[in-house]
Backbone:
């Protein structure tokens, strides 16, 4: 691929989009950005600076000069940070600042895979290919439960399902850039697919539709 190639992947939490996105970036030699890590990094910087999460002007300033090293800080993966990230992700000025970072990332040669909630709809509406990766709430909760259990978490599967459904509600009902498939997105339901099969389906979609 000589021209810049941008692959936008959206979908709800625990749909498998991150794993599929990383595998596709590797296969096609593209950079990869987990855009949720940007929202989590802003939230981490706010919590560390003890800034109230509803202070939109402070959040905007932090997003504008974001320390990108924080996107690889293990602390951003905690459930406390997931909560805090969801709060600041509802602030339009934060989204506007992070859009700048995401677009710059997408414009670099040789191109990129970005995964998130609004990549195909808002961040990269002209992406070469858009995928919307989803799975039933029960299946996503089961996957997340098994991961958490392996990491020693005491949460029950029912608690994880309640959390997944609450996140879906927040992501889809947000006023600014809610989670929804772009009109030209290809839907990939991974409910009954292994990760290898889901990856294979994504490759088939890309091979069929890229110019
Ligand atoms: O995918 P994640 O759980 O790491 O995302 C963290 C939060 O950021 C979550 O509340 C959804 C939000 N988010 C968003 O609003 N837009 C994106 N492009 C990516 C994540």
Residues:
């Amino acid at each position: 691929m000589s021209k810049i190639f941008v692959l936008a992947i959206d979908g709800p939490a625990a749909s498998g989009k991150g794993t599929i996105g990383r595998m596709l970036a590797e296969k096609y030699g593209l950079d990869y950005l987990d855009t949720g890590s940007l929202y989590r990094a802003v939230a981490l910087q706010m919590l560390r600076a003890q800034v109230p999460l509803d202070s939109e002007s402070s959040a905007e300033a932090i997003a504008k000069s974001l320390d990108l090293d924080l996107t690889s800080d293990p602390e951003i993966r905690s459930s406390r940070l997931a909560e805090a990230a969801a709060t600041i992700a509802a602030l339009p000025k934060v989204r506007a600042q992070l859009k700048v970072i995401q677009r710059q990332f997408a414009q670099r040669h040789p191109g990129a895979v970005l995964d998130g909630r609004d990549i195909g709809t808002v961040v990269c509406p002209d992406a070469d290919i858009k995928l919307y990766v989803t799975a039933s709430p029960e299946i996503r909760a089961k996957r997340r439960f098994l991961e958490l259990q392996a990491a020693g978490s005491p949460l029950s599967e029912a608690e994880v399902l309640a959390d997944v459904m609450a996140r879906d509600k927040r992501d889809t009902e947000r006023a600014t850039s809610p989670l929804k498939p772009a009109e030209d997105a290809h839907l990939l339901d991974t409910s009954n697919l292994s990760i290898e099969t889901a990856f294979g389906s994504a490759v088939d979609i890309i091979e069929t539709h890229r110019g």
Notes: Residues 5-205 form a domain with the Rossmann fold fold (CATH 3.40.50.300). Residues 130 and 172 are 18 Å apart (CA to CA). The mean pLDDT is 95. The longest helix spans residues 157-173.
